[in-house]
Design a protein that fits this description.
8 strands, globular, 15 helices
Amino acid sequence: MKKNLLVYPVSALLAASLLAGAAMPVQAAPGRTASAASAANPTASPQPEALAASPDMDAIAGLGELRAGVEEEYYTHSEAFVVDVENGHNPYDVEWDYSELYDAYVEEADWSLVFDADFYMESFPALAFLYQYDEELLLEHFQTVGIHEGRQGSKAFNVAAYQENCRRELRDAFGDHYECYYFYWMLNQDSQEGITTSGKSHPLQLGVKMTSMQAEEFGKVNEYRAEVGMEPLEFDPELAAAACYRSWVNISEGYGAHDWLDDEANEEKVYALMDLLDMYWLSENTVHSGVLDSTDHIHTTFYINYRYSPDHYEAMINPKCKYFGCSHIYFGNNRIPESRHRSESSYRKPMLRIEFDVFTDELSTPVHP
């Protein structure tokens, strides 16, 4: 296939194939897990804040009210949005933490009932690309983000099908807190026989969750578009995963700005990234800056940096763009490449902070098929 040149600020990218998208409502944000306290033994004393993972409907319904740290106000908890590529538990994306109680449910549940790594990677290819096909971290994503978005994690269980066929009292108790349906199914297998949990007519994903940082960036970009009469962009979580991949690869491989895209040695990976989402065209904005340490990111507003740079502003208000995704703040020990540094003082700073916004006119994902 003949590949087309893509246009975006600073440099150019080559493209892939096509497929247009339909809209999907965007919701707020949830959280991460790690290992957690196991469900308490009935004969043992309950652990502080990590009570027994009760299979009771009312107890599980309470999980729908829990908030993760990355859902909190961006400026209050800025450190939650930093991905430490070299020293963090998860080198590819932010960690979502709901509480010890939530972690107790994660530990108690049998995830083999709702998750198959190969199915998840096939269904959400850009997410798999970001996580470098790490099955453990993809399961963690599913446990803390995916189930809140109603993502299908295995061929055997689709939460929309289960929501449609389960008892009405469950729907009344859980509403659209999709995570509650997953936990109830996994923890109440004895009473679930005969309930339909799959079907080709049900979507692979029901909603979109953003951290408060992503929501702020997304909202401001659309404000700029409204000022000049442009239609608002639609947030896409797979496109956001691609933005996170761009940040991660620049930090981990030592690239500056858009240099990774211009390097002929990466041509195959560039095309692969585009092909995963059936994107025909891509635009990206990025901030690369030297910092003294990982806390030197407080109150960073990337959309303001982009607003007052003509090329970056043009990318945000481009009428050709329809879909949007943004990364979190990625941090590492690579120095800013000499070709990119703007001053001796910034070049001498030994650490690099990166953020990406990406835009496209066409893509195919579970929320924009």
